Amino acid sequence: MMSVEAAGSTSPAPFDPPLTHAEFIALTEELVAVTAPRLFAVVQSHEPEGAAPEECDARVAAWGMAFEEVSEVVSVDSGCRLSVRSLERVVRMFGGGADISARVVWVSPGASSEACPKASSGQDGVAA
Q: Who has greater pLDDT, 78 or 8?
């Protein structure tokens, strides 16, 4: 709960001066914006070595929300749910075989998938 706490107190201290309803709404909207998780997709790609672009394929295998210290991931196919501290683990779990790779693609405006390069079963580099 959003509140201002007095030192040593377990109950919220009132705002001084009291907030108007509009100010309170603005503060709660700011709280939501600051604490919102980042949304991402886990994309699996089938890119055989030497294949022409039309022979390659990709799909969204899972969706996730990245919080400050943990990410929650839900598989599209099986509904499998994961709580992980490292997106590298997610990339390794969804990558498989020589021709199947996985990468994290951020949905957030301004974010680039370049921050989380694809990784096959032999790689494990993802920057969050």
A: 78
